[in-house]
């Protein structure tokens, strides 16, 4: 994920990011009980230097709430059909309030049973998947997540998209340290990277995407308009995307990636995609000396010149962003202000006529 | 996996494969209560056309039992520390009897809790991982497996091996059909493919492996003697290998890949690697119409010219091998006969002196 920061933009503290996000979401009709979960995730993405999933995505969230593609007022519904299974129906609303609603029940079930799962259906783009698994790991649990998305990767041997970029994420609790977080899409890059390049008017490197005819392209527009994403590692990336699809889409009862509407435009109603989380209470299995064994594994990586642990860039960004704030393009800032104001105007209209 | 069959070899029916495998294992001192699980997996690998994990691996199993690197008489021990967790200690013996011992308890726990896991520690090479998850799926459960192996993949940015080729496998039950099985290593190819090329005296393609200096090589010997395997999709393959390592090695309490002795030579005692299986009773989550939704997903793949489902080559091999049998190199046949006879001679010696 990119942490490129344009010169001549608008500098914001993380507190200002939070305030701007909250105003924009509320102004677009998001229920105050749902807004906090989304805002917290946008702030966390910016704090971790993952700008593609932070304010850069917020105009889409606002637009989808404004036009009703996503029901900003939907309240998630939770049940636990089995001792180890928690299910949350996002009801066509935002993903974040649905996931936040399910996480405490997931953690409780994992601690009681040793292993538990949370299935979120009728959901939407959940932003940085690592953000969610990290919060599970902060409860001392090992966490694994599968997330589907509108189809953009072709199966092995085929040319038509069947799988989303379908990320997988892992978080491992560490004694006295932030959890290790690994978060990677099944494609060479996350689709949001291509969106960011399009927003900046920059070409994409060859090898990221194919155009609608299956030919390699450097044009982000050609990639996004009917093209496909290249899976990482060829057929093995497509294989991983299938694993993710089975858990995140099929098992949760969410829309398959082939049936999900776009995360980007206003058409087709809610994407109704899914998220699937597994949480494990590791104490009973990993046993005595598990902390030392974990750090021995990580030390075998960090002890090599040039090697680093996944997520280490986030950790260093976290300190830098908290101290310095972030800089976003003027145009993005203006767009977000417009959502915050237009929505506010619309809201005033409601108050006047209501 | 290769299904290349050398001309001028020895043709065997699957019944003859079973008989030869059983004789060789028993002759090398494997306990009759352990032998059946190993033999069944060797026959299944040959039946599926995965020769690299069938009789081609049997000389190593025999040799390890003969010299005591693997304790052929070890009996696995099972406990269930939590309602959703089953643990099997393979006690430095073969993997297959340990996994077979744990599978019924895993399936029972998954049906009771909705989700359950089986952690196998102090284990060994388990052959085709897909074989094990397929058997879980035959109980109507969705299955995911993680398996570690002696270190052969370097972490991103590094040059020294930290992860094994660490495969991941998925099996999905299908109404009236064999389960869908996906089984892929974190490396570009499974290490066994390189072993098979070495046995045949054939070079390996560039891009499969690096030599001990980190340089690309076509020499299988250079790859196996201090070299590393190339991860599929670059750092994303190394990332997947880390996910697998956390579950299969760290969580199970097995040896980390960096601490595991070779699966190939006689040195260093048992590798004591691990396997981790997750089984899910899908009915409560996937809900009504889940069969149709699954086949709709698979149809979006098989409906494309040139695309195929993972595991479909195995299914067609299964019919061909059952009808025609297999052909193995004369040299491999002679080696296996020698294990079967030498072991038998040693066994007679025990009987005479016992």
Overview of this protein structure:
The structure is a homodimer of 354-residue chains. Chain A has 354 residues and is of the alpha+beta class. Chain A has two domains: 1-67 and 312-354, Malate/L-lactate/L-sulpholactate dehydrogenase, four-helix barrel (Hypothetical Oxidoreductase Yiak, Chain: A, domain 1, Orthogonal Bundle); 77-187 and 231-311, Malate/L-lactate/L-sulpholactate dehydrogenase, NADPH binding domain (Ribosomal Protein S8, Chain: A, domain 1, 2-Layer Sandwich), CATH 3.30.1370. Chain A is 44% helix and 17% strand. The first copy, chain A, contains twelve helices and eleven strands. The longest helix of chain A is centred in the last third of the chain and has 24 residues, at 330-353. The relative contact order of chain A is 0.17. The model of chain A is unreliable at 348-354 (pLDDT under 50).
Strand content of chain A: 15-25%
Mean pLDDT of chain A: 93
Largest interface: A-B, 70 and 70 residues
Shape of chain A: globular
SSE pattern of chain A, N- to C-terminal: EHHHEEHEHEEEHEHEHEHHHEH
Number of domains of chain A: 2
Identify low-pLDDT runs of chain A.
348-354
State the total count of DSSP E strands of chain A: 11
Radius of gyration of chain A: 20 Å
Task: Give the full name of the CATH homologous superfamily of the largest domain in chain A.
Answer: Malate/L-lactate/L-sulpholactate dehydrogenase, NADPH binding domain
Report the total helices of chain A: 12
Helix percent of chain A reads 40-55%
Query: What fold name goes in the CATH topology slot of the largest domain in chain A?
Result: Ribosomal Protein S8, Chain: A, domain 1
| Main sheet strand line-up of chain A | 2-3-4-10-5-6-7
Which CATH class of the largest domain in chain A? Alpha Beta
User: What is the subunit organization of this protein?
Assistant: homodimer
Question: How many angstroms does the end-to-end distance of chain A come to?
Answer: 44 Å
How would you classify the helix and strand content of chain A by structural class? alpha+beta
């Amino acid at each position: 994920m990119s942490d490129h920061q344009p010169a001549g933009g608008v500098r914001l503290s993380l507190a200002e990011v939070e305030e701007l996000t909250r105003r924009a979401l509320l102004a677009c009709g998001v229920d105050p009980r749902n807004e906090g979960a989304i805002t917290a995730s946008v702030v966390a993405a910016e704090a971790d230097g993952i700008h593609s999933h932070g304010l850069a995505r917020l105009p889409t969230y606002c637009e989808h709430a404004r036009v009703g593609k996503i029901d900003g007022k939907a309240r998630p519904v939770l049940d636990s059909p089995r001792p180890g299974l928690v299910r949350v129906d996002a009801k066509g609303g935002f993903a974040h309030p649905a996931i936040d609603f399910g996480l405490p029940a997931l953690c409780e079930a994992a601690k009681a049973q040793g292993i538990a799962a949370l299935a979120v259906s009728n959901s939407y783009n959940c932003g940085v998947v690592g953000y969610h698994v990290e919060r599970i790991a902060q409860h001392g649990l090992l966490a694994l997540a599968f997330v589907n998305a509108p189809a953009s990767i072709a199966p092995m041997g085929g040319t038509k998209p069947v799988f989303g970029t379908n990320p997988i994420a892992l978080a491992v609790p560490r004694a006295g340290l932030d959890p290790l977080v690994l978060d990677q899409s099944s494609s060479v890059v996350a689709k949001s990277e291509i969106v960011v390049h399009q927003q900046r008017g920059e070409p994409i490197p060859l090898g990221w995407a194919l155009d609608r005819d299956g030919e390699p392209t450097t044009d982000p527009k050609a990639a996004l308009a009917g093209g496909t994403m290249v899976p990482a590692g060829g057929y093995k990336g497509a294989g991983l995307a299938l694993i993710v699809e089975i858990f995140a889409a099929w098992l949760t009862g969410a829309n398959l990636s082939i049936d999900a509407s776009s995360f980007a435009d206003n058409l087709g109603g809610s994407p109704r995609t899914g998220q699937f989380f597994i949480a494990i209470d590791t104490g009973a299995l990993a046993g005595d000396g598990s902390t030392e064994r974990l750090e021995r594994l990580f030390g075998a990586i960090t002890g090599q010149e040039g090697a680093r642990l996944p997520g280490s860039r986030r950790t260093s960004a976290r300190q830098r962003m908290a101290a310095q704030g972030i800089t976003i393009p003027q145009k993005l800032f203006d767009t977000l202000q417009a959502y915050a104001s237009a929505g506010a105007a619309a809201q005033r209209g409601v108050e006047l006529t209501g």
